[in-house]
Amino acid sequence: MASTSTAYKRSYGDRAKAQSNPAARALLETMERKKTNLCVSVDTVKPADFLAIIDAVGPYICLIKTHIDILEDFEWSIIERLEELAKKHDFLIFEDRKFADIGNTVAMQYAAGVYKIASWAHITNAHPVPGPSIVKGLSSIGFPLQRGLLLLAEMSTAGALTKGTYTEEAVQMARVHNDFVIGFIAQRRMNGIGAAPGEAQDEDFIILTPGVGLEAKGDAMGQQYRTPREVVLESGCDVIIVGRGVYGKDLSDIDGIRARAERYRGEGWSAYLERIAS
Ligand code: BMP
Description:
- It contains ten helices and eight strands.
- By secondary structure, the protein is an alpha/beta fold.
- The chain has a single domain (22-277), classed as Aldolase class I (TIM Barrel, Alpha-Beta Barrel), CATH 3.20.20.70.
- The protein has an eight-stranded parallel β-barrel, surrounded by six helices.
- Helix 3 (47-57) packs parallel to helix 4 and helix 5 runs parallel beside helix 6 (133-142).
- It is globular, with a radius of gyration of 17 Å.
- The two termini are 23 Å apart.
- 6-hydroxyuridine-5'-phosphate binds next to strand 8 and helix 9.
- Pathway: Pyrimidine metabolism; UMP biosynthesis via de novo pathway; UMP from orotate: step 2/2.
- It comes from Coprinellus micaceus (Glistening ink-cap mushroom).
- The active site is at residues 96, 98, 101.
């Protein structure tokens, strides 16, 4: 049953006001303030490239997405620098950790270990595959720190198993824990999915969507790209996540990276303006 919730047609700023989770509110407020729905995914191996790219794209983004375990020679000063850049450019941090274990284990993976993700990432994500206990485990660490969680309700890759009742049950899980689960990694709007008629009228999950590219249609390993317009206007998603489309092949071409971030920001924002005007 699809929802009649029209939350996604309201402005990001307006939607921020109704969010109880501080990370969700901060993300939507940042989007409104900076006029951007672009999240750049910085999937680089060398810390120097990682930090230089973040500094270059900072003005154009609402959120930076990290895979912290890709970095070589990890040291804590990288996190300190990342936090400085987040302050300098006014963006939030999303660690794309994709937790997928039992509650007791994910709580330790989130709080401790080398990366201590909960201490610096405003937002992280999890696969719903273990069931509600994964949310309980992560929430026991993240909720008191005012963090937010995204569930992976759909993936962008060809042949992904995240469909049908799996996606529906992910939305049900989020609904039960909507103080901590702020939205989804998904390819379309999720409000109201699986809800009984009349239920979930006002729900407003934030949808962050990877698999966004203006040039390529995919890669050699199953990734599939759609344009910002398809994602934001046609599918009702909120944040476009762009990796290679922004940082490209030459990580030293900082001017090119900056220009591409500006372009994706423009495309994402005009699709959003068209959506809220419709
Ligand atoms: P790119 O734009 O270069 O294809 O990168 C996409 C990023 O989003 C990668 O970091 C990947 O791990 C992530 N991602 C994805 O591509 N599809 C999903 O369904 C979920 C993801 O987190």
